[in-house]
What does this fold into?
Amino acid sequence: MATDNKKSNKPAAKKVKDRWKAKEWYKLYSPKMFNQVLLGETPSADPANLMGRIVEATVHDLTGDFSKMHVKLTFKVKEVRGFDAHTVLIGQTLTSDYVRRLTRRKRTKTDHVIDVRTKDGYLLRIKPMSVTDKRIQSSQETAVRTAMTNEVTNMGIEMTMADMMKIIITGEMSKRLSNAAKVIVPIKRVEVRKTEVLEMGEGGQDVSIVPQPEPEVEEQPAEEQPAEPVEEEPAPAAETAEEEEIPVEGEEQ
It folds into this structure.
């Protein structure tokens, strides 16, 4: 009886729920600015939990351009329709290894932080970096920062957020900043190291700014051509069984 009481006093084992069975897979898409390319998939038990999730991709992943593998874009989920989650662009950055390769000895690397309001109301924080041919003085660095700030501010007055991101990705902004700063000191390289979207504007991200990736064409195997019939060579004539004997001098015939 005592043993039976001990067994009955033990609490029943709790059933562990498998949370993964309750989750569904959702597809993440880039905004129309980047042709709504599939970025990946993510699991979630509730569509509301997807809101605000962050996903990163390179420009190469979106366009197939190998020369832009060092440019990373950051997206944030804004809307969920069924099992499709749509994102908006919230930032851009260069890979750390690419930035390290730009810095060399006996040169001055100057970082800039510029806040600019675009034509359609977006507030962007743009962080360009400049590398000079030789070391420069602090007063020259200040003059370079002022020239770049004025140039970026003028761009924001004239351009929308989509236009600004386009010239950042294509490198057109780096060229314009280099031309503005080389009047002060010789500039070796200018790159936009990072971009952040601080405030969303009135305009959307519906205008495409990058070319669509070319579909991969599968190489079809070449059709096998029928082999040409090989003509059989005639068999060599059979040698006569009895060869003619050549008479030898001195033999009796």
The chain has two domains: 23-94, 95-202. Helices lie at 2-9, 59-63, 96-102, 138-158, 161-170, 172-181. Confidence is low (pLDDT under 50) at residues 239-243. The longest strand covers residues 187-199.
